[in-house]
Amino acid sequence: MRSFGKIRRVVVKVGTNLLSSNTGVDRERIRSIVSQIARVKKEGYEIMLVSSGAVGLGAKAIGHLTPVRHIPLKQACASIGQPMLMRVYEEEFASFGLLCSQVLITRSSLNNRKSYNNLRDSVATLLDLGVVPIFNENDVVSTAEIGDVFGDNDRMSAYCASKMDAELLILLTDIDGVYTGNPKKDKDAVMVKEIKEITPEVFSYAKGAGSTFSTGGMKTKLLAAEIAQKGGCGTIIASGYEEDAIIRILKGEELGTYILPTERLKQRQRWILNTPASGGIRVDDGAEKAIHSDHKSLLPKGVVSVEGLFLKGDVIDVMDKEGNIFAKAITNFSSAELLSIKGKDSKDIPYEIGGGQKVVFRPEDMVDDYE
Question: CA torsion, points 324, 329, 333, 338, in degrees to nearest 10?
C-alpha cells in the first residue's frame, strides 16, 4: 500500500481518450469522474481538475474527423468545444450538490508573477468555498509563436500542481501505467510500479503519440511527472477505465505507476523553477562561489556579461564565465540597467537605477543547482 495519508490538495488530469465518444462527450465517463471527486471531497481532499477534450469535441461538432493542425481551426474548435465540455461538467457536479468553475490559462498567466499570484489567490478562494476548479489551456488565444503554450495538458497539469501547491498529480489515461515497452507489441513488457528518478532509460520506455485528437502520449506524461517531481509533487499515471480509480489511488491502492516526489521546495522557489528564463547573466568565479557555496546575494560587481532582454522581476539564468547554467533567480534589475552597472561597486550605482537596489538578487529569490 502507498501512504497518501498527509496529502490534501490533488490535481486530477483526465485525457481526451477517456472523455471522447464517437459522437462527442462520453457522459458516463464524466459522471464517474465527478462521482469520485464528490466522494473524496467529503473526506477532506481539495481537488483541482484538468480536463482535455475541448478541441476534439469542437472538431466533431463541425464534422472535422482528422487531427486539427491549423492553428486558427484549432482555436475555433476549442471555442466551440469548451462550453460543450463545461456544460456537461456543470450538470454532473450539480447532481452531487457541487459547483465547478472554469479556469482558462496560458503559460504567461503562470509565468508572470503578478498574474500568477492573482490566479493562485483566486484558486485558493474557490477551494475554500468548496468549488472544483476545472483548468484548461486557453487555446483560443494562446499561440506557440509567442511562447504562450504549454504544449499539452499533461505538462499544464504538472505546472498547475507545482505552482498551486498540490501534493499529488493523478494523470488518468487509457493505459494502466508505465511499461518497459509497448505492451500491445512487446510480450516481455512489464509495468513499472514505482519510479524514483526519471532517467533516459525511463524515457526510452515511452514511444508513440496519442489518439487522433489528443496531443499526448507516455512521453508527455513522463515529462509532466518530471516537472511535478522537481516541485516536490508525486505523480500517479493510471488508467481512467479502472473502476473508482481516483478513490482507490487516494486510499493507497497500488494502481498505475507512482513517480516519487523529491524534497519539496518553498512555493516561491517552485515558481522560479517552473518559470522559463527571459535572459541570463554570466558571473565571475568569486560571485559563483558566493552564490553556489556560501548562499549569498549577487552584487553587480560580480556580473561579467548580460545575455538577452529582460525586465526587473523576470526570472533569469545565472551562469559561470563559460556559460554553464547553475542557478535561476528573480532579478532586481532590467538587462539594460545591468549592462550599465555590471562590474561596479554597489556604492558607485546611482540610486535611480533599480530604485535603490544594491543587489542583483538575494538567496531567497534563487534556485541553485536546478538542473
Answer: -10
In angstroms, the CA 29 to CA 141 distance is 28
Other beta carbons within 10 angstroms of residue 305's beta carbon come to 15
Chain length of the chain: 371
Distance separating alpha carbons of residues 51 and 325, to the nearest angstrom: 35
Listing from the earlier edge strand, what are the strands of the sheet with 279-283?
303-307, 279-283, 315-319, 325-330, 366-368
Per-residue buried b or exposed e for 357-366, using 16+ beta carbons within 10 Å of the residue's own CB: bebbbeeebb
pLDDT digits (tens, 9 = 90+) for 312-334: 999 999 999 999 999 999 999 99
Residue 95 CB contacts under 8 Å (≥ 6 apart), including other chains: 34
Query: Residue 114: how many CB atoms within 10 A of its CB?
Result: 8
Q: What residues does 51 pair with on adjacent strands?
A: 14
Regarding pTM above 0.85, the answer is no
- Residues 191, 122 contacting (CB under 8 angstroms): no
CA angle 148, 152, 156 (to 5 degrees): 70
Over residues 14-31, the pLDDT tens digits come to 987 788 776 667 889 999
Q: Cell 507516455 identifies what position?
A: 218
Q: Tens of pLDDT along 339-356?
A: 999 999 888 888 778 777
DSSP sequence for 244-281 = THHHHHHTT---SEEE---PPPPHHHHHHHTS--SEEE
Per-residue pLDDT tens for 200-241?
999 888 865 444 334 458 888 999 999 999 888 999 999 999
What is residue 212's DSSP assignment?
S
Rounded-to-integer distance, Cα 21 and Cα 211, Å: 12
* CB contact at 8 A, 218 and 198: no
The DSSP 8-state label assigned to residue 352 in this structure reads T
Torsion, CA 174, CA 180, CA 182, CA 187, rounded to 10: -120
Structural element, H or E, at residue 317: strand 315-319
**Secondary structure (DSSP) of 356-370:** G---SB-GGGEEES-
Q: pLDDT tens for residues 33-84?
A: 999 999 999 999 999 999 877 777 788 888 887 777 777 888 888 888 888 8
Tell me which residue has cell 484548461. 136
